[in-house]
Specification:
By secondary structure, the chain is of the alpha+beta class. The protein contains 3 helices and 5 strands.
Length: 150
């Protein structure tokens, strides 16, 4: 069982903060990819030319930007993880929230761009097995519900 489970309402209330963290991590990932692409191009030109003069100040600055972006990703992912939320795919912004319903743990599933959490799937399933939230899940954790926060 996960360290923390969420009710649908609790998970929904976290979305604005999580969306901001997720966007920061995704933007930092794009920054890293941009720097890596630039470095690969420079390496290729050096190889083809048998060596050349490089703008080492620019390259050092870009390396610093890359390191800063790596730390931003680590920080954002760390905050999301500390909240008990699972990052399933950073490229598309996919998050899962463990939720206990009728004594069973399921995953509330949200993708960046969706207005609200409207899907779920089993813990042994993935995004392609998403099902719409039903009344059983909507009321879990309310009066008499079975969701718990540990």
């Amino acid at each position: 069982m996960p360290d923390r489970t969420f009710t649908l309402e609790e998970a929904q209330s976290l979305l604005p903060i999580l969306e901001s963290l997720l966007r920061r991590a995704m933007q930092s990932k794009k920054q890293i990819e941009s720097v890596d692409e630039e470095f690969q191009e420079v390496n290729h030109r050096v190889f083809l030319n048998g060596g050349m003069f490089l703008d080492v100040i620019h390259l050092a600055r870009r390396r610093g930007e890359r390191e800063k972006a790596i730390q931003a990703i680590k920080d954002a992912i760390g905050e999301i993880d500390a909240a008990g939320v699972q990052i399933k795919d950073l490229d598309i912004g996919l998050l899962d929230f463990p939720c206990e319903v009728d004594g069973q743990v399921i995953l509330l599933c949200w993708k960046l761009g969706e207005a609200a959490i409207a899907h779920w799937h089993g813990t042994d399933e993935g995004f392609s097995a998403r099902k719409p939230i039903d009344a059983r899940i909507s009321r879990s954790g309310g009066p008499g519900g079975s969701s718990s926060v540990n």
